[in-house]
Specification:
It is built from five helices and 22 strands. By secondary structure, it is α+β, with helices and mostly antiparallel strands. The chain has a domain of 242 residues: Sandwich (Jelly Rolls), CATH 2.60.120.200.
């Protein structure tokens, strides 16, 4: 019996849902109950405090609530546990959202995935982890997405430079690790980097190495150009770089007994031609650049299980921030890429538009307030200038009145002096 295409599509959809496993999901949608699921580290006594909030701007006041760093210049350390699992033979997808609404200057926005033996109450920067993934910003030089895998006890950083978002809006970060040893990094559900573990990390020794027995032949000439043996230096080539200034004259007041023998100052010699070098010609014995032959590296051994972690059980936030205010939300760890895609669309995808609109409206209000303040300051400044002019005018009138009074006093004084002289006569 043939089934309708629509029914087959439903069966296929159900099969995908059944196969997908969500190992961890956190949306902070039940108030303060999140504190019972997350364990703060006590390794340091002064870790920064987390608070539940949607921030200063958001797309949905409830759905956008996440945990936010709340104190400047602090380390932060908290983690959540789930049932241990292995990603052997299946994709591993780690996804979460980050909002740096504080215009972050220096601080982490990444997560760490730990094995089940982690002591959560003692989690710290040196605690061994499986994966470290997410944005890290510090100044203008560091704005990247960390992708670090632990392999045989050593942490290995991706060799590629993966740029992160550095604005104030919420962004979705996704890491996909496949059992065929490939990976993909997505930001806002769009691929920004991909490749293979073997090529983009130095986990394994190089497949090829330079042959230690090979040496460049002694007669190997790798000079593409050589001096022309027939070229000779012209007889009049050598000229001094500087000469005495012919226009300089000894000052009239120069005293050789006091000042020593006078010497004219030096100037650049217009006839100076620099150091002579013979012309270059093609080297007739040139054999090209010598390439060191390579051999198979005896220390290299392919490992088809580099991607595999056997005891994944804890997601941790272990980071430092100079300026606090980052909000983490919408965590999911699953073995199904589509499950993560759909979760991202249902959470960040729904609220990103309204969040951006609210942010733009706030920015517009703040801009108008600044403009009004600037106008007000300018107006106050003009008012101060007018007052100064009025005061100057009053001062001038007072000066004139004072000068008039002084003139009268001077006349009276002169008259008194004249009377005195008359009396004396």
């Amino acid at each position: 019996m043939k089934l309708p295409v629509a029914v087959l599509a439903v069966f296929a959809s159900v099969a995908v849902i059944i196969d997908a496993t969500v190992h961890f999901r956190e949306q902070f949608d039940d108030g303060d109950a999140w504190t019972s699921r997350w364990t703060p580290s006590k390794h340091k006594s002064d870790y920064g405090e987390w608070k539940l909030t949607a921030g200063k701007f958001y797309g949905d006041a409830e759905a956008d609530k996440g945990i936010q760093t709340s104190q400047d210049a602090r380390f932060y350390a908290t983690s959540a546990r789930f049932e241990p699992f292995s990603n052997e033979g299946k994709p591993l997808v780690v996804q979460f959202s980050v909002k740096h609404e504080q215009k972050i200057d220096c601080g982490g926005g990444y997560v760490k995935i730990f094995p089940s033996d982690l002591d959560q109450s003692d989690m710290h920067g040196d605690s061994q982890y499986y994966i470290m993934f997410g944005p890290d910003i510090c100044g203008y030089s560091t704005k990247k997405v960390h992708v670090i895998f632990n392999y045989k006890g050593q942490n290995h950083l991706i060799k590629k430079d993966v740029k992160c978002k550095d604005d104030e809006l919420t962004h979705l970060y996704t890491l996909i690790l496949n059992p065929d040893q490939t990976y993909e990094v997505r930001i806002d559900n769009e691929k920004v980097e991909s490749g293979s573990l073997e090529e983009d990390w130095d986990m394994l020794p190089a497949k090829k190495i330079k042959d230690p027995e090979a040496k460049k032949p002694s007669d190997w000439d790798d000079r593409a150009k050589i001096d022309d043996p027939t070229d000779t230096k012209p007889e009049n080539w050598d000229k001094p770089e500087t000469i005495p200034d012919p226009d300089a004259k000894k000052p009239d007041d120069w005293d050789e007994d006091m000042d020593g023998e006078w010497e004219p100052p030096s100037i650049t010699n217009p006839d100076y031609q620099g150091e002579w070098k013979p012309k270059q010609i093609d080297n007739p014995d040139y054999k090209g650049a010598w390439v060191h032959p390579e051999i198979d590296n005896p220390e290299y051994s392919h490992d088809a299980t580099m991607y595999k972690f056997d005891n994944i059980a804890v997601l941790g936030l272990d980071l430092w921030q100079v300026k606090s205010g980052t909000i983490f939300d919408n965590f999911i760890i699953t073995d199904d890429v589509k499950e993560a895609e759909d979760f991202g669309k249902e959470t960040w995808g729904v609220t990103k538009g309204p969040e951006k609109k609210m942010k733009e409206e706030q920015d517009d209000v703040e801009r108008k307030l600044r403009e009004e303040e600037e106008k007000s300051k300018k107006k106050d400044g003009e008012g101060d200038d007018d007052e100064e002019e009025d005061e100057e005018g009053e001062d001038e009138e007072e000066d004139e009145e004072g000068e008039g009074e002084q003139d009268e006093e001077d006349i009276e004084s002169e008259e008194e002096d004249e009377d005195k002289r008359k009396d004396e006569l």
